[in-house]
Amino acid sequence: MPGNINAGLATKGLIDNLMLNCKAKNKILISFPRNRESIFYKILFIVVFLITTNLQGQTSSFYKKSDTLHIKRRNAIAITETILATSALIGLDKMWYSDYPRSSFHFKNDNNHWKQMDKIGHVMTSYYVGKTGMNVLNWAGVSKKNQLIYGATLGFTFLSAVEILDGFSEKWGASWGDILANASGTGLLVGQEILWKEQRIMLKYSFSKTAYAKLRPNTLGGNFIQQALKDYNGQTYWLSANIWSFNKESNFPKWLNIAFGYGAEGMLYGESNPNNQFTQDPYRQFYLSLDVDLTKIKTRSKFLKTLFSTINFIKIPAPTLEYTSRGDFKFHLLHF
User: What residue spans define the domains of the chain?
Assistant: First the structure.
């Protein structure tokens, strides 16, 4: 993702070259369908995460965690989740899948698309939907064991149901890669709770605009919000580890994290194909950076606690080392 002026100029040069390599002026740009599906996952993640984090830092007794099992709350959660999940699946079927012919259940191998950026999006969505499931059950006083069984697996369960819809679509097809990614997100959440009884390593996200979206706005987004959801060239996914949590007797600042990032650039299509209107030369990006766990910043403000918890999935800009699959090393004074 372009993090400075030089990177921006390099990207512009690549785009100019891509324009010169246009093979046919009259070809129709066809959006790769799974990119559209990925938007749904990201919107789902944002909605559920913002809802659950707003339960934190509230003073009303309604929002306070129950010390014992609160049966009415538990039942309300079960009913609400069932209604929301059912409505979402019906909505997906009517708005998206109905546009394509039905088929018998089948798999489609899309594991080489978008340099696996879409798969990492599945990991993150599964992780945070599961974290939301745990948080609301914790609010209802449900035991930790049942939080892990019925809450943490919520992301994997729901996204697997979406894969079944994919499997019956002639155009798409279920993806083993997606299923594995969904399981990985749930595994990261559950594994840490079993091992440490806390989340020491979090998944985070960052985004910078790129010039690629101008070439394929229908696929990569026509404005900032759409591009943040659709343009994999501008996205970076991070594993952000809290240093102090691994040595609680140390003098490390409790809020300081070290982050390992992954991104990709040069992508106008899910995969290179001779029939594509533009040629492309995608490559991978690997990052090492510092980060901040906002929830570990001490404050008495209820508002700030809620704000920090809400936006903690966003990677904080910081000095960053970048290595690309082309063999290039770069240093960014501030990278986002």
Answer: 5-18+31-335
